[in-house]
Amino acid sequence: MRFAPYLALAGRALEANFRRLSHPYKLTFCLTFWCNYRCETCNIWKMKPRDELRLDEIQRFFRQSPGFLWVDLTGGEVSLRKDFVDICEAVVSSCPHLLLLHFPTNGYLTDTLVAAAREIRQMAPEKLIITVSTDGDEAMNDELRGIDGGWRRQIETFRRLREMPGVEVVLGMTLSAKNVDHFPQAFAAARREIPDLGYGDFHVNIVHESSHYLGNTELGLRGRVGAEALARATEGYARLRGRARSPVDFLERAYLKRVRRYVETGATPMRCHALRASCFVDSWGNVFPCTVYDRRIGNLREVDYDLARIWNTPAAATLQAEIWESRCPNCWTPCEAYQSILGNLVRPELPRFRRSRPRPVVGSA
User: Which of 205, 189, 198 shows the shortest CA–CA distance to 154?
Assistant: First the structure.
């Protein structure tokens, strides 16, 4: 284990408790909007994207921005990019203090994903975490994800990745109206296939809406699932996980602990660190505060792929100040919550009167 990446992340997270960083330490980067699933809670699969960032553009971007310590590569489905491994190499080779490289996958292309993970491990990132999506048992998962036989492939991908040294893999479950109370069935089904599966092998989060990323705002997801049901489900899962035994467990538990506050008030339960410690970049190089807030602040192609030229503009600082005061859509998605949790270890959370201002984001139970 190299200590430098851990110390670097600890230092940057601590600094973010007191001031806006001169460069984000965490990046969520959508590599492609192509997807081979047809999920009910997301409209990415309906897109037919063109002119997404090429490999050489992505390589230049990371060479220009070597300070990332935590990179989430997402989609669409990342394995549909034939240059996915090369993109990972660009991240690992360009960011000398990178602590965590993470990507989610629908798990359908098992052989492709296993081969990619093997090559990425040879690059020796300090931590490589892969989330394989599953939204229930076989029937529920395949209904929600719109692909017959998907669950079987997802479980096989999880199984094979789990056997690989140096790869941490979890099953990711997003709770929405149809599956909000379905975790026990999802866990039992997966455990029948993998007998030594534990509750910590899952990652549970709640559904969100986003116009510029998920394209699902017209689906009316917020009104179809009750606040009490979401809170009860996440709290039940948190009890099953038990005590936090690692930094990742700590973040997961801190996230789950605040779901009730979020769904009941509609407000982010602590000051958000979007554009303070992190940002979101889509597959065309558009830079946004996060995956939820549709406020584009620039494009990498317009600044020679130098994120600092966008991050350090007065407009970005002004927008970050608005987000800091909760004048944004308010969310509690793990993509944004984890760095906010780390950034609020010293600074107290928002007072209750501020949290209660926005309307609840989900219907009452």
Answer: 189
Q: Residue 36: phi, psi to the nearest 5?
A: -105, 10
CA atoms of 36 and 42, how far apart (whole Å): 12
Q: Give the closest residue to 96 by CA, choosing from 230, 19, 189, 4.
A: 4
| Polymer length in residues for the chain | 365
The closest alpha carbon to 19, from 297, 320, 281, 349, belongs to: 320
Collect the ranges in the chain with pLDDT lower than 50. 352-360, 362-365
Q: How does pLDDT run across 29-53, given as a tens digit for each residue?
A: 999 999 999 999 999 999 999 999 9
Do residues 260 and 237 lie in contact, with contact meaning Cβ atoms separated by under 8 Å?
no
CA atoms within 13 A on the CB side of 11: 11
Phi, psi of 106, rounded to the nearest 5 degrees: -80, -10
Tell me the one-letter amino acid at 16.
A
CA-derived radius of gyration, the chain = 19
Question: How buried is residue 188: exposed, middle or buried, by Cβ count under 10 Å (0-12/13-18/19+)?
Answer: exposed
